[in-house]
Write a structure and sequence with these properties.
The structure is a single chain. The chain has one domain (77-303): Leucine-rich repeat, LRR (right-handed beta-alpha superhelix). By secondary structure, the chain is mainly β. The chain contains three helices and eleven strands, in the order αββββββββββαβα. The longest helix is centred in the C-terminal third of the chain and has 13 residues, at 291-303. An eleven-stranded mixed beta sheet has the order 1-2-3-4-5-6-7-8-9-10-11, with no helix packed on it. The chain is elongated, with a radius of gyration of 35 Å.
């Protein structure tokens, strides 16, 4: 409580005597009263600060298990000076992420867990988040997060609008349900993987500073949004792309495509500054080779009636 100070009036006393009194002088004016000031309003009660926890791996395991009774203690944590910097719970038996409420990690891996609800992550300052092979569909809790890496492979995610304006550098959405990429049009993405997604329109990528993009097995037909970009690596194998002409002037060093689908622009491809070219580049197979080896084989195949 603030201490209150009271203003006390100054009392002046005069001593009399029996001698004849002179003509009284005009009475001195009374001292002006100090203006009354309103008493300060009592301060609002301040909530006690939450006690800081010096985290250890044991405490973190306990916290995770408190919210996930089936948790078997197989998480891995990066803890520095009592602060949790990163958590990897890949493959853990957890479906509740409320254990993040009292920590401020920069990286979190929930891949291969049954997690579906990200609401407890709202307001966190994650820089890296891995959600591959989870049940997550709604990304709205991530809005405004300073994410630079986000992995959504094989999730039911469709809507990327929550990512608008994020400082994302890497986005992996392989085999997800993403069909609209307009939500990432203002992100500084350099690496983008969309293999197997139902995406068809890539006009939103025109303004994205991509270095590498994988459109393998998507529905993309038109590459014109990539014209004028600084793209270096492009994977368009097993897509309906038939025209490579929009790639003229693009500084590609790697191109993966399906030669049999191409009806226009093959000469443009020959003029690209490629270091590697091929028809497959995934976990199943890779056949990248230098252009000096690829083009003679391609020409021989065309001459023999195949592509």
């Amino acid at each position: 409580m603030k201490r209150l100070f009271l203003l006390l009036p100054l009392v002046l006393t005069h001593c009399g005597d029996d001698s004849p009194k002179p003509v009284p002088a005009p009475a001195a004016p009374k001292p002006a009263e100090a203006p009354k000031t309103a008493s300060p309003a009592p301060a609002a009660p301040v909530a006690p600060a939450e006690p800081k926890v010096f985290w250890t791996p044991e405490k973190m395991h306990t916290e995770v298990k408190y919210h996930n009774p089936a948790y078997e203690g197989n998480g891995e944590f990066n803890i520095q000076e009592g602060k949790v910097i990163a958590l990897s719970l890949r493959g853990a038996k957890i479906d509740n992420v409320k254990f993040v409420q009292h920590i401020e990690p920069l990286a979190l891996d929930l891949s291969e867990t049954p997690v579906s609800d990200l609401k407890p992550l709202q307001g966190k300052k994650l820089v890296e988040l891995y959600l591959e092979d989870t049940k997550v569909q709604d990304l709205s809790a991530l809005r405004g997060m300073p994410l630079e890496k986000l992995y959504l492979s094989r999730t039911p995610v469709r809507d990327l609008s929550a990512l608008e304006g994020m400082p994302l550098v890497e986005l992996n959405a392989v085999e997800s349900q993403v069909g609209d990429v307009s939500g990432i049009a203002k992100c500084p993405l350099q690496m983008l993987w969309l293999t197997g997604c139902p995406v068809e329109d890539i006009r939103a990528l025109k303004t994205v500073p991509l270095v590498s993009v994988t459109l393998h097995r998507t529905k993309v037909k038109d590459l014109s949004p990539l014209n004028g970009t600084q793209l270096q690596r492009l994977h368009i194998a097993e897509t309906p792309v038939t025209d490579l002409s929009p790639l003229k002037g693009v500084p590609l060093t790697r191109l993966v495509f399906t030669p049999g689908n191409i009806t226009q622009g093959i000469e443009v491809a020959r003029e690209l500054p490629l270091q590697e070219i091929g028809t497959q580049f995934d976990e199943a197979a890779k056949d990248l080779q230098p252009p000096a080896a690829f083009w003679p084989a391609y020409d021989a195949a065309v001459k023999s009636g195949g592509k």
